[in-house]
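Q: what sequence does this backbone want?
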C-alpha cells in the first residue's frame, strides 16, 4: 500500500477512535457530577481537532499548492452592479447605457439607445463609482423619472436625457408603468423587463 493510502487509513481509524471516545464522554458526563464533567470536557474536547493537525503535518511534507483563490468574477443575486461614471450624473433613476468601455456607464442620449439599467447613485464626477440596477436582473420593481405623461400599463422607454416616455417604434422598452405620471420629472414605479428587443 502507498504511504498516502496508509495515511488516509490512519486518519479514518483515528476519527473512529475519537468518535468512540466522544460517545464514551457523553455517557460519562451524564453519569457523573458537573465537576467531573467539566474536567472531562477540558481534557478531551481538543481531540476532534487532531485530524486537522495531521493534515497540516502531511501538507508540510507535500509540495505547496493553491487550493483557493479569489477571482474577479461572480454573480450578483441582487441584480445590482457597480460601474464607473463617464461624467457626473445629478439625478437618480435615469436610464444608463454602457459608456466608454465595459466598466463605465453614461446616461442615455438618444431614444434609440439600449439601456442596461438605472443609476441608483449620483456620481459627482467622472470615474466615481455608481450602483446600477440592471434590467432583467433586479429583484422587484424599479423607480424611474418620467420625461412625459405616462399612463398605467404603458410600456416605457428612454428619452434622450435618460428619463422615460411611453415606448414608441424602434425603441427598447424597459418595463411597464405601475402608476401614472401627469408630466415630466415625476418618480414612477415600473415592472422592469430586459431591454433587448426594439418595439
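A:
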Amino acid at each position: 500500500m502507498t504511504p498516502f493510502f496508509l495515511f488516509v487509513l490512519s486518519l479514518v481509524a483515528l476519527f473512529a477512535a475519537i468518535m468512540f471516545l466522544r460517545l464514551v464522554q457523553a455517557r460519562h458526563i451524564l453519569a457523573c457530577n458537573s465537576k467531573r464533567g467539566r474536567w472531562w470536557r477540558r481534557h478531551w474536547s481538543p481531540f476532534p481537532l487532531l485530524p486537522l493537525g495531521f493534515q497540516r503535518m502531511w501538507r508540510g511534507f507535500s509540495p505547496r499548492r493553491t487550493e483557493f483563490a479569489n477571482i474577479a468574477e461572480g454573480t450578483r443575486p441582487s441584480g445590482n452592479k457597480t460601474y464607473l461614471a463617464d461624467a457626473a450624473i445629478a439625478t437618480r433613476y435615469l436610464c444608463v447605457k454602457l459608456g466608454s468601455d465595459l466598466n463605465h456607464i453614461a446616461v442615455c442620449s438618444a431614444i434609440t439607445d439600449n439601456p442596461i439599467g438605472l443609476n441608483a447613485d449620483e456620481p459627482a464626477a467622472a470615474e466615481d463609482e455608481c450602483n446600477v440596477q440592471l434590467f432583467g436582473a433586479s429583484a422587484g420593481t424599479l423607480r424611474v423619472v418620467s420625461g412625459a405623461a405616462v399612463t398605467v400599463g404603458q410600456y416605457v422607454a428612454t428619452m434622450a436625457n435618460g428619463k422615460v416616455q411611453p415606448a414608441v417604434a424602434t425603441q427598447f422598452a424597459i418595463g411597464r408603468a405601475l402608476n401614472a405620471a401627469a408630466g415630466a420629472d415625476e418618480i414612477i414605479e415600473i415592472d422592469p423587463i430586459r431591454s433587448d428587443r426594439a418595439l
